[in-house]
Structures are given as C-alpha cells and as structure tokens.
Amino acid sequence: MTITCAAMGYDCGYGVTGRDMDQILSGIKHHSLEFHGYSEEELNSPDVIERWKGEIRQSARPDAIRTPRDESDRDVKPH
Question: How far is residue 13's CA from residue 6's CA, in Å, rounded to a whole number?
Fold first, then answer.
C-alpha cells in the first residue's frame, strides 16, 4: 500500500509505502514531523490520526467508487 502527500491534500511529492496501516501511519508521522512541521502532540492527536486513516482508505479505493468530497472546507494546512 502506498500513499502520497498529494493524495492527502499537501503540495508535496513524498510517498509512504507499507504492508499495513500501522506502517503507513509510522511513515507519515516521521515525514510530517521532519518536513511539514507537525509537533509530537499533533502527530499523536486522535483527530489527526483518524483523518489520515480516512484519507489512506479513500486513496486506496478505485476511482470509480471513491466518495466525492467537497474540498472547500478541508482543514489541511501545510506547515
């Protein structure tokens, strides 16, 4: 499984690959800390983790069955 920062709403070409959700989240946390300026507190926030999990699940769905979403109110801010 692979997810990119771009798929999560960031202007960044980085991608994380892993066998399961825990590996993917670990890679995202490390990258977010180093390159997007997240704090340890933000990285461990249940809200942030759930949002990331949702974005990972959504990006893994085939285009034909992805749930359309309104991007206008996304709370994704590059750090």
Answer: 6
